[in-house]
Batch of 4 targets.
Target 1
Amino acid sequence: MIIRDATPDDAAQACAVLRASIIDLCVADHRNDPGILSRWLANKTPENVAAWACAEGASLLVAVEGDAISAVGGLTHPGEITLNYVSPQARFRGVSSALLAELERRAAAHGACDVALLSTETAHRFYLARGYVDVGVPAGKFGTAASYPMSKALALAS
Ligand SMILES: CC(C)(COP(=O)(O)OP(=O)(O)OC[C@H]1O[C@@H](n2cnc3c(N)ncnc32)[C@H](O)[C@@H]1OP(=O)(O)O)[C@@H](O)C(=O)NCCC(=O)NCCS
């Protein structure tokens, strides 16, 4: 597996990964509620993903195995993780851990001292196990019961 910057050519496949990850893996969050799913998925279009790949002040990363994209990660510089979605077929094989580590490296390279994100219920345990702490009151997003504001201090390079 390699992790690299996404290009607009990745948009269709990366978008499909984002949508499958939300629909199939985040059931604890959306509970198959059509309204929540429709709000969550509304901006996950190939056109938007292509634009995110070219956006100033942000990084869109893909984890790639062979010809297949297995996960998509997003960072708004310097240190806000906006996307971290693994394909259902690639779950629990270390892909998100590797992608998260690269997002953190990118954040550090952009001068961030810490990284912030809003975790799903689905991924909350994953982030806790990777050094993130809750930093605010959980609040619903897209109509979900709880999203968790989390943060992690980055180790300073010596
Ligand atoms: C939870 C999730 C993020 C983990 O990604 P992954 O690529 O499958 O994870 P990895 O293989 O890198 O690491 C496995 C970790 O998942 C977590 N995990 C294991 N089983 C789990 C389960 N049944 N449910 C939730 N998390 C689990 C553990 O923290 C595990 O870490 P450990 O090996 O140190 O115990 C992913 O499976 C997922 O469901 N993503 C859905 C999209 C999402 O919610 N993204 C976050 C947006 S903020």
Note: The chain has one domain: 2-153.
Target 2
Amino acid sequence: MFDNWLKRYKGAKKSAIDVGIGSGVLAFQMVQHGFQKVFGTDTNPNAIAGLKEAMGETKLSRKIELSDANLFGELKNETELIVFNPPWLPAASSLGKIDEAIYYNKNLFPKFFAEANNRLAKDGKLVILFSNLGQITKASKEHPIEKELAKGVRFQLEKCLKKSVKVASEKTKRDQHWRSTEEVELWVLVKK
Ligand SMILES: C[S@@+](CC[C@H](N)C(=O)[O-])C[C@H]1O[C@@H](n2cnc3c(N)ncnc32)[C@H](O)[C@@H]1O
């Protein structure tokens, strides 16, 4: 979904920030689509170390700058594109670094939106990949992006694309009864 969105993206491509860069897939896509510099952060030091090693001395390593940091870390500059594929489920207990790929604590989204507001350029785009998983599994009562938009203070919705997920393997032993209603979401927010 992000790759398709990038194909149609008409804005500036000087720099972008990938919050929670993980294996780097979204940052690689941005470089492929012509972004000159991508700053990536992650709270999981293994993600940063693994990505550093994988990129080695390649051209990618000159285009993607990594930082083992929470949210935006020390990045203060404005950028034209911020992307975040955050954890999709609210945490029921305290989190370790690996859990943070899947579960979010109650401060994550309020802090993310406040910091993103200070770093997004005037005509910039804030892209968030999310899912209705929390709602359909009844793990959460609220949707953190809808909650931010409902405040109507910092961001407004440009578009929200939704896509059903593929059916689960017949071999899975996990409870997948909700899967037929599961959708991934690509939210594009702009500054008010
Ligand atoms: C769902 S994964 C997405 C990884 C990758 N961007 C992708 O799309 O495949 C979420 C990532 O965000 C990281 N993360 C979670 N909370 C974070 C935070 N507060 N600051 C920076 N990274 C965070 C996790 O460690 C994990 O690598």
Note: The chain has a mean pLDDT of 93.
Target 3
Amino acid sequence: MSDSELHYLISALRGYLDELRETGVDGLPYDDDRKDPVVPFVVAEEPASMTTDVTVGEISGCDSLENIRRELGDCRRCSLGEKRTNLVFGVGNANADIAFVGEAPGRDEDLRGEPFVGEAGQLLTKIVLAMGLAREDVYICNVLKCRPPNNRNPQPDEIESCEPFLLRQLQAISPKVIVALGTFAAQTLLRTREPISRLRGRFHDYHGIPLMPTFHPAYLLRNPAMKREVWDDMKTVLKKLGREPAVAPKADEKG
Ligand code: SF4
């Protein structure tokens, strides 16, 4: 097999695994002895000790984004700092009513130093416009600020190092609503293993701020039919803010 064929195969497999993860599947069985019937896949169950409301201390604006960015500096607090092209801090309105939080920068974001600028980012911008807002009206960032190699899943030590800065960003912005984009962001912020398909569609509490989980735009690119669910979630967000959407697109027209 040539290098390009291998690269294509790995890329296709990664896309498939991302899709499984987005729908709540977070593991595949490995039966070494093949003694038992193989279960097709494992669906994550929420541990009894976890809740989907994070209420340890309420968010209050007391920091500034400039201070947080300055403090991050040329961050090497985890190993991703050695491999990134650019640290992707976040963009948008420092006083936004809505903050969108994704997983981590991808290739385009790493190169540009800005979150959600690739194909998925363009779809997110369309969603924001359909909500009657401009991209500059909202704040957009990720749980991790540096790209994991080959877009692999973030590791616990990377989250532990980076998430405190995200929390401070959200404290500084103090948005009225947070939208968690995709499984990883929703599960990380809410400290849960519940699949996104069960988390989405309703508000959860994140340090006193309503948090709406919804599907990641990259997932929508592969599953356009799910745009309807995301649009329903965004209408729920707008209702919370007392706003009307700019347009009411059909699910297959949006994006
Ligand atoms: S991912 Fe976060 S903690 Fe790790 S190097 Fe980048 S900015 Fe620092």
Note: The chain has one domain: 58-240.
Target 4
Amino acid sequence: MDANLHLDAPGRNGTAHVRHLTRRFGPADARPVLDALDLDIQPGEFVALLGASGSGKTTLLRTLAGLDPVPEDAVVALPRPVAVAFQQPLLLPWKSVWRNVALGLPEDARGDARARAEAALAEVGLSHRLDAWPATLSGGEAQRVALARALVREPGLLLLDEPFAALDALTRLRMHALVLDLWARHRPATLLVTHDVDEAVALADRVLVLAGGRIVLDLPNDAARPRRRDTASFAAMRDRLLDRLGVREHAA
Ligand SMILES: Nc1ncnc2c1ncn2[C@@H]1O[C@H](COP(=O)(O)OP(=O)(O)O)[C@@H](O)[C@H]1O
Ligand SMILES: [Mg+2]
């Protein structure tokens, strides 16, 4: 393992456990993007993370995904494996759909790669596209392939960085239902980064706001799913989050 990559074993009971995570870019006296951030995600919990553009959401996800180094004095202890899907599906254009999904498998699981990729693609409703080329997929289909590639490794922690942001509104709603369905079936701890407050309130057990490098608001939501968006409790939670994000226009 990369010596820089100093990732601890998962916390007690498989909790994803982050303590004192500081990340800064540029000079040592630059203002940190993440400033001694603490975060816990329980096994099977669905957490959404909101924050203004540039607040450090992707920086946090990249660190949890093991793509960026963890500083020596931070603790990052995660249930493994960790899988990640980004706003862009990032499929390899020269590999068929099922081979792109098989890329999500660890080296030692490549023997039954085709069967496992087929099963993951069936779960996202793409059994009919196994041998298709990425260039022939719609945006929603490509993002479903990216989800299948993340799920095929049966992650203990699923990281989603604005995975629906580039999709049209109707496709986005369908993807919400699909992600909830997959989460309910596999139950990975999930951290969904989004800038869409309604998406966060509709999907997550807990909604966090990242600002000034830390989690500044942490709101549980135990409403049953699927959630109606036209209820008073939904609106109340949306308002609290918009207030904290500083984007609500206050009625006089
Ligand atoms: N590799 C990098 N080098 C320099 N600055 C970076 C790098 N990655 C992110 N940043 C800066 O860190 C801040 C947070 O970025 P990011 O985590 O992408 O924010 P978000 O995903 O919340 O929009 C931004 O100011 C961005 O310019
Ligand atoms: Mg980002």
Note: Residues 34 and 60 are 7 Å apart (CA to CA).
